[in-house]
Amino acid sequence: MKKNEASDLDASDLASANLTNIDLRRLQAFVLAARTQSFGTAAQSLNVVPSAISHGIRSLEAELGCSLFLRRGPKVTLTRAGQQLIPLVNDVLRRIHELRDTAQSIESQGDTLRLAVPELLCSRLLPAILPDFQECMPEVALTIVPITSQQQVRSGLGAGRLDLVFSLPGDLPEGLQKRNLFEETLVCCVSPGHPLLKTREIQLRDLQPYTVLTSDSGAHRQLLDAFASQAAPVPAETSELPSIEGLQAIALVSNSVAVMPSWVVQTGPDATKYLQPLRWRVPGMKRTWAAYSWKKDPLPWAAEVLIGLIELRAQEIHDRMKVAINKAA
After folding, report:
1. Of 18, 38, 17, nearest in space to 29 by CA
2. Which residues of 153-170 are buried (b: 16+ CB within 10 A; e: fewer)?
3. Which of 90, 108, 126 marks a domain boundary?
4. Can you give the residue range of the structural domain that contains 149?
5. Model confidence at 2: pLDDT above 50
């Protein structure tokens, strides 16, 4: 059975493995000499004299019990054994490099996790999970900045000023690694006593007499696209408000209809103080929040913990809202 991972080695394998004489410098010399077909050129790359490379290769051959090179004057070529071993040695050196990078990443996690987050997540989601994050990662400080432009996202991640960006789909720059967090559904909410609460399941055409408020430009575009795709009469007026708090405050004291993410809808025992979700089935009113990072950088462990907490919290809110909407029906 071929064993590629350290976890595959049992105690007897580890105890019997004679690894004390394997020198990484000799493995580097082996790879460089194989690539350049020259001990002299390999020596230049490692800043040593050619005789040191020759001696190191002979020692490695003795340790492995096979000849690695055919020597013909200044030129060397791999033997059959050397050709078969070179991929394994390359893999060993690559894993050593990954080991050092990962160790440095872990070591740096005690500093700061730098996030760019939209206002909606800052005000509604992060406050609910930050106490748990700080309990899990007390040594990590969070730096949170608002997203102002896509150029900020690219330059911030590329220059190492940001570790993570939370965002909805959009015109994000290329070269980013994407990790989906949670899917949200845009729902219709109205004030207590609104006439639409008498409708069991509303259709787009039912919104036509009312002013429709949306929570952001993306929601506004999705709503208008939905009206266009169903050839439904456009509402009397649509308006995009700058904050979710303003949207809810206006909708609560008027006959406006608020189109907003289901997970930000507040509920409580006194229904007169909260917007009421309506039951509607309109295609295309879902979207996915995601975490973006620079592809060249490994994601810090603190970022993985934060993402996991967001996913758990989002699922709890989704389950709660599903119950609330079913009750409204």
Report:
1. 38
2. bbebbeeeebbbbbbbee
3. 108
4. 111-182+289-319
5. no
Question: Could you read off the pLDDT of 122-168 as tens digits, one per residue?
Answer: 888 888 899 999 998 888 888 888 877 777 777 888 777 888 889 88
Category of 100 on φ-ψ map: left (φ > 0), alpha (ψ -120 to 50) or beta: alpha
Structure tokens at 49: 């004299």
pLDDT in tens, 79-118: 999 999 999 999 999 988 888 877 766 555 557 888 998 8
Distances (CA, A) of 42 to 36, 38, 64, 67, 92: 7, 6, 20, 18, 19
Pair 277, 193 in one domain? yes
Long-range contacts of 89-98 (CB under 8 A, 24+ apart): 89/27, 89/30, 89/31, 90/31, 92/27, 93/24, 93/27, 93/28, 93/31, 96/24
Asked whether the beta carbons of 27 and 20 are under 8 A apart, the reply is: no
For residues 175 and 293, membership in a common domain is answered with yes
How many domains is the chain partitioned into structurally?
3
On whether residue 8 sits in a domain, the answer given is no
User: pTM for this structure?
Assistant: 0.59
* Whether 149 contacts 158, CB under 8 Å: no
279 and 197 co-located in one domain: yes
Burial annotation 221-249 (CB, 10 A radius, 16+ → b, else e): ebbeebbeeeebeebeebebbeebeebbe
**pLDDT at position 5, please?**
44
Say how far apart CA 250 and CA 229 lie, in whole Å. Answer: 28
C-alpha 103 chain-centroid distance: 20
Residue 6 inside a domain? The answer is no
